[in-house]
Amino acid sequence: MNHVTPATCVALAVVLLAVTGCGGGGRQTLTVFADTSLTATFGSLGKTFEAAHPGVAVRLDFGGSGALARRIVQGAPADLFAAAGAATMRASGAPSPRVFARDRLQIAVPKGNPAHVANLKDLAAPGVRVALCAEAAPCGAGARAALSAAGVTVTPAGPDQNGPDQNAAGALTKVRLGKADAALVYRTDVRAAAGAVEGVDFPEAAKVVEDYLVATVPGTTRIALTREFVDLVLSDEGRRVLAAAGFTPVTG
Questions:
Q1: Whether the model pTM is above 0.85
Q2: Helices 223-234 + 236-244 axis angle, to 10
């Protein structure tokens, strides 16, 4: 019969503690895929969530909603998806999404509005250079819908003004650098520019409102954490952070 010595017991205990620590006792990571326009808001809410959940790290992965949806379908590890646009959310396959915010378009102009752009029709005036986002980007699809609703036809100035990869940041950069007199982007994009450009409201924007939705990604093992993060987004704190960024919070 083999006898277990006290020294062996101590060694076994150390091994068991190490194994346990490497398992459930370590930090958990909640991976959130979110549209680029949510960088500031979800960055703030992620820190709030971590402060309220010791041992949980929130990993935020930002990008275009369409690209993120494709990554989810291809099996990229994500627990939660916050997307711009219902169609993009459907493409991800994430079930039962909830609308948590809305955004609407503005005309972004350089400081002082040198081209005196006051409405969508002014974008079609001779000599006015307009930057549009790529059609695949939310600001691109929204801009074209708004222009169509107003019966306005705009030809972007320059061969790269609405390139296939141009997002709101690219369009705003052209306005800020004086390469465009105006761009059609969302109100939150103008707010995020921190005064580098000015925003001009127009009535047709009410007809083109972008919904922001959030949903748990199928297959995640962190369902409880994803639900708690959604609760934070829909809470008073979440609404305050979203409103400060220019979104219209939705609680329904």
A1: no
A2: 60
